[in-house]
Design a protein that fits this description.
heterodimer, A: mainly alpha, MetI-like fold, B: alpha/beta, Rossmann fold, 6-stranded mixed sheet, 9 helices, 25% strand, binds adenosine-5'-triphosphate, binds magnesium ion, transport (chain B), ATP hydrolysis activity (chain B)
């Protein structure tokens, strides 16, 4: 059987729908994990031992459990105790929680790297803690951690393929269906390879742009 | 006025401030001299609430920096300029200067920016208003640091070795501005190793040694042969500083 992608033509709309679902889930999870990451990083670096401990437990927990197990627990486990959430929402939440654990770690190192003198200058000028976090700590931490955050986000896109295991026909899920309908797994999965590579390439492009923007003051020095 | 009474501070077993009494009245420029490790920075950090006192009290216009309720008010009345500038790296000069006026004093952005640009003009940085700290020289950064402090309209300016990270030329840039401020009657507590400059702008000189306030004299008297200089510790210190 010669390699022939045209055979997939009738299935393109279906695959595109899957790709769109993946893009949507990833975009939402990316925002979700960034928000969770910022929040948890703030808690972990807070002066309250209780809060920082709780944040640490969260990060440790979700980083040490396979994503597929977390996902199954949310999707197949929770209904047992009466919590029903649709597959898409479950997928986005699970990705956000897992991505949040990794993001928070990256952001936390960004926070710890901030020169204490800068924070002291802000304190002394009478700025409140929340304002200091929002206007100074967060933007400085983000500009140093945006690149490693990019890796976390790319991983998020890759991990999103696991959502196909909870009945969600995102990119991988639809590809599986097309592959078994057409009996042309080689062509189907070749297209899938390219689709994921393009998606992650887009993410890394966006990260590059963001990195340059956040560090625009030092652009001549930052390679 | 700034009033310190019996201020004590230790780090572990090291006593860094050992019962400091000091008054700074409005309009005064008080320079704090003393060798490295004598506790000058720690005293400033106690005044602006960055360090907790172990004993004694510091009040700024009767607001006690050790009381969380008073500290906010005390901090509104004083402003600090730092040795290493401590500018916010992700903000332009203007943004550095306007942040606290907008957030703390609730000024409008337009009003705060206009004031910031006027301040920058007055220190010769009008053209660099939208530059980031990384794009400025050390002397320019410190001038922005001074503007940031002045933008809060503080009654008291706390300055901790604000020129010691600068080369002589940049030091002169910054000291000129301080001289101007002193002439305008700005109240300053000025920690420095620039002895000659301190002599020209100070109304009083305070000498710290091993956490104790050894002398507190009007500038003339401090440098008089039968005044501060009569103390071996001070004359040693001064001759050593002048040699460096
Ligand atoms: N956070 C800290 N923890 C432990 N020791 C400290 C701390 N801050 C200051 N010290 C110690 O307190 C002493 C006084 O320090 P301080 O910085 O007040 O001195 P200084 O008079 O400002 O000296 P310099 O002229 O070098 O700036 C020093 O021995 C210093 O090592
Ligand atoms: Mg010092």
């Amino acid at each position: 059987m010669p390699f022939d992608v045209t055979i997939l033509a009738p299935h393109v709309p279906f695959l595109l729908k899957g790709a769109l679902l993946t893009a949507e889930a990833c975009a939402l999870a990316l925002v979700g994990s960034l928000i969770i990451g910022l929040l948890v990083a703030a808690l972990r670096t807070s002066s309250s031992p209780l809060l920082s401990r709780a944040a640490f437990v969260y990060v440790d927990l979700f980083r040490n459990i396979p994503f597929i197990v977390q996902l199954f627990f949310f999707f197949y486990g929770l209904p047992e105790i009466g919590i029903y959430v649709d597959a898409f929402t479950t997928g986005v939440i699970a990705l956000s929680i897992a991505g949040g654990a990794f993001s928070s770690d990256v952001i936390r190192s960004g926070i710890l790297a901030i020169d204490t003198g800068i924070i002291e200058a802000a304190e002394v000028s009478g700025l409140s803690k929340p304002v200091i976090f929002r206007k100074i700590v967060m933007p400085i931490a983000l500009r140093t951690s945006i690149r490693p955050l990019g890796s976390v986000f790319i991983n998020l896109v890759l991990t999103s393929s696991i959502l196909s295991t909870i009945t969600l026909n995102e990119l991988t899920g639809s590809a599986k269906i097309v592959a078994s309908d057409t009996f042309r797994p080689f062509e189907v999965y070749a297209v899938l390879l390219i689709a994921y590579a393009s998606l992650t390439y887009l993410v890394s492009l966006a990260i590059g742009v963001l990195h340059r923007r956040l560090n625009r003051d030092r652009m001549p020095e930052v390679a | 006025m700034i009033r310190a009474r019996g201020v004590r501070k230790s780090f572990g077993s090291a006593i860094v401030l050992d019962g400091i009494d000091l008054d700074v009245e409005s309009g005064e420029v008080v320079s704090i001299l003393g060798s490295s490790g004598s506790g000058k920075s720690t005293l400033i950090r106690c005044m602006n609430g960055l360090e907790k006192l172990d004993a004694g009290s510091i009040t700024i216009d009767d607001f006690d920096v050790s009381r969380p309720k008073d500290l906010a008010e005390a901090r509104k009345r004083s402003a600090t300029v730092f040795q290493l500038f401590n500018l916010y790296p992700h903000m332009t000069a203007v943004q550095n200067i306007t942040l606290a006026p907008i957030q703390v004093l609730k000024r409008s952005r337009a009003e705060a920016e206009a004031a910031a640009r006027t301040l920058l003009d007055s220190v010769g940085l009008g053209a660099r208003a939208d530059a980031y700290p990384a794009q400025l020289s050390g002397g320019q950064r410190q001038r922005v640091g001074i503007c940031r402090a002045l933008a809060m309209n503080p009654r008291y300016l706390l300055l901790d070795e604000i020129t010691s990270a600068l080369d002589p030329e940049m030091t002169a840039e910054v000291l000129n501005i301080l001289a101007q401020l002193a002439k305008n009657g700005t109240t300053m507590v000025f920690v420095t190793h620039e002895i000659e400059f301190a002599r020209t702008i100070s109304s009083r000189i305070v000498f710290l040694d091993k956490g104790q306030l050894v002398v507190d004299l009007p500038t003339e008297e401090f440098f008089a042969a039968d005044g501060g200089m009569a103390r071996p510790r001070i004359s040693q210190f001064l001759s050593k500083m002048r040699k460096d």
